[in-house]
Amino acid sequence: GGDDDDGGSASSTTSGGGTASAGGVSVETVDGTDVLADSDGRVLYSADEENGGEVLCTKSCTSIWDPIPASEGAGASSDLKLGEIDRPDGEKQLTLDGAPLYSFEEEGPGELSGDGVVDSFGGTRFTWHAATTGGSGSPGETDDSGDNSGGFPAY
Fold this sequence. Notes:
Helices cover about 0% and strands about 30% of the residues. It has about 160 residues and is mainly beta. The protein contains no helices and ten strands. It starts with about 25 loop residues before the first strand and ends in a 25-residue tail after the last strand.
């Protein structure tokens, strides 16, 4: 039987974008967008409706949108503002800026087809967006940018 050629559990292959991660979340560039991806290279998503830190995607929703376990955040860059939240089933789920993160079951590694998807489960409508390095909220809310432009263009 030579059917276990490349199934070595201790293999340390560094294929892909050279981002060092301890088997967890990393930043990948997919379709020209810097997005967060899990250890399998699948893009992570959050739902607009959960940005306040409340888990609404439960039951049938999780058959399409798979909750990312908090353990995926281990070894990720501290710049990413990752955290965790308790799911209704008691599991700990990874968050970005407080918004719970999911992978899209209909998508493989390196695909970005779930961005902007709108669906509904149990009467709750969800609008999904890829988790980007800018966080899940609206950009430009940090006040440590160092410029005093106040939003006006520089001349």
